[in-house]
Amino acid sequence: MKGKAANSAKLGPVIKWAGSKRELVNELYSRRPLEFKDYYEPFSGSLAFALRLYQDMEINSSQMFLGDISKPLITTYEVIRDDLEALLSSLDSPEYSWCLDKNERAEAYHCIRESFNQLLRQDTLEHPERIKLATEFLYLIKTNYNGLYRVNKKGEYNASVDLATEGEKKIFDGKALKVMSGFLNKEDVTVFHGSYEILVETAKAGDFIYFDPPYDTPFTQYDKAGFSWTDQKKLKRTVDILHKRGCYVMISQGATKRIKELYKDYHQDFVTTRNLINCNAKGRKEKNPELIIRNYKMLGGLLKM
Ligand SMILES: C[S@@+](CC[C@H](N)C(=O)[O-])C[C@H]1O[C@@H](n2cnc3c(N)ncnc32)[C@H](O)[C@@H]1O
């Protein structure tokens, strides 16, 4: 994979996602290993870092493996990749427009939310249902209160409708979706729906794995499974296995005391970002302490542990 910048100048996230690393992309990029083979990102979300890496990488790398446990997120990426025209025409239908009347907007939103949750409950989806799920997902995250996806413990999407925004609102950006479709269709890009440990099974010495798991402090639920402290410890065991295998591993996490302790043998850098999750503007200006954890030295070679 090399020199992609010229053809993909506008490539960027098409989904606003809780915990997105848009704010941290430069910090992460400056800490990447200078050389690596394949790239794995098992907690992909909006793909902020993967897209940056893809655009700017001058080095050769054969494959990018991008996964996430969120069914609507990965289904939407697959639909953007395989059925872009059908998706654009579905998004374009009057059913998914932004109602200027607030009562009508709330009614339309609740109806689509119900239909979306019904699709989420199904084990398998037929082809038209996959397009419907992707359409409803993109519509709901554009028209909800803070533009972020979250589910309750039963796995139901429960965010409320945005009644504050007045005037017109763009539900989707067709050009951005086309550029994303081009990226997802590249031969060296694979998307995967499932848990992180399955995706990294095939990682080998010299590969680079970037983990961006849910934060240690709960702020949002992406999936009914959640991510507990036991899960954080299990992830650390996977990181240790990958380290022993000779992989380059980078992890981003909130800088809590127990995370610092858990990864005490690894290199840790402290960085701060704006809190993009907070609902009010004042809260969003607060700085979040974050950790970037690595098992390698900046000038090459793994840490000795
Ligand atoms: C902090 S977010 C990642 C944000 C992403 N890096 C971005 O820039 O948008 C954490 C992600 O982990 C996913 N996730 C939670 N549990 C998972 C698991 N067991 N395996 C894979 N993904 C999981 C969530 O769906 C969510 O997308």
TrEMBL record:
Coiled coil stretches, renumbered: none
EC number: 2.1.1.72
GO process annotations (BP): DNA restriction-modification system; methylation; mismatch repair
Gene3D superfamilies named in the record: Adenine-specific Methyltransferase, Domain 2, Vaccinia Virus protein VP39
Catalytic function, reaction form: a 2'-deoxyadenosine in DNA + S-adenosyl-L-methionine = an N(6)-methyl-2'-deoxyadenosine in DNA + S-adenosyl-L-homocysteine + H(+)
Keywords attached to this entry: Methyltransferase, S-adenosyl-L-methionine, Transferase
Protein name per UniProt: site-specific DNA-methyltransferase (adenine-specific)
